[in-house]
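Reading group handout, session on sequence-to-structure problems. Before we discuss, look at one worked example. The prompt was deliberately terse, the way you'd type it at a terminal:

> structure START domain-containing protein

The input record follows.
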Amino acid sequence: MAMISLAELALLSGPLSVAVLVGLLLGWAWKPKWAVDLVGVYQPTGLPTLDSLKPRLPSFIASFIPDKVEPAEFAAGICSSSPGMGSRKLAVTEEDLEYLNRLVEVTDGGPVWQQMMERSLPSLTYQAWRRDPETGPPQYRSKTVFENATPEIVRDLFWDDEFRLSNKWDDMLIYHSTLEECRTTGTMVVHWIRKFPFFCSDREYIIGRRIWKFGNTYYCVTKGIPSLSVPRRNKPRRVDLYYSSWCIRPAESSKGDGQCTACEVLLFHYEDMGIPWEIAKLGVRQGMWGCVKKIEPGLRAYQIARRSGEPLSPCGTMAQINTSIDANYFRSLEANNDSSDIVEADEKPSGRNIPRLLVVGGAVALACTLDRGLLTKALIFGVARRFAWPRRTL
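And the output record:
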């Protein structure tokens, strides 16, 4: 009988110990003011925190209380000051900054960049390159120089989804919302829906983004991230692999006066849109310059709006929360970088080397956009087959 009582007491000792610990913590946290005055400890700012209680608790209890998050942890990728984020790892971290820096310095060790085009306007110059990695979609690099613009105004323009949607300088964006934000580091998670032309359905993006500042240079990272807060649907189609990041910095004006009154933007972009890559390359090449030309009037409208004193949108405000970095940080990266190359020669496509997939894919696109019956579509496919698989001459 005594053994049974001891066994029962042993079973109860665990829950009783937990109850005692919880009671001690609750008692310390919610003790009345007269008891606080009695022991001579009073905090006029409100309820005591776990950090203030920790020195007065037994060591075996205090060991279960985590240490206070210091500012250094924010730089390492932790944010606990933003509504909706709690205390969690940021969507964009220093690893993403290092990757963007290697792209900017052409030291990522990737394939050679082949120049695609070079265009200019009175207040804008543009160059674009492409490379095809062994795996993954085509990658694009571009350099745009805006005259009479500061890096700060261009930074805010690219981040300001409200203005992007209202001004229509990016007419592919048809919906945006902010899912999460960290007001300490400026990190955001946004939800985009973009309209694609012709035979493609709309595309959906869950994007993490963050900005680092080095002097007057801004490293702006945006990339696709997984998210459970937005359920995946059949339409619009979710784009999982997405990367689009900028290095924005002052540049010397093309006027030749030696003044840094222009702004240079280096853009690195690639994504898997779910269509054949050869067709995607054709579409990008044909539509790239048209999209870039729309940015310039959008930028000038944004400059006018800011000079007139229009209030910043929430996204524009977040663009001004940056993480500062110093020169020593980049020096530490130089030893581990591998060089790449940029080829300045213009890449001119040859009509004799058109890929068969491109021809057939273009025929599919044309046939799907026309509603002229089966005979018309059969004719289109027949012409495409004639070009893609020409008859051999004997």
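Points for discussion. First: The longest helix spans residues 277-307. Second: Residues 115 and 346 are 5 Å apart (CA to CA).
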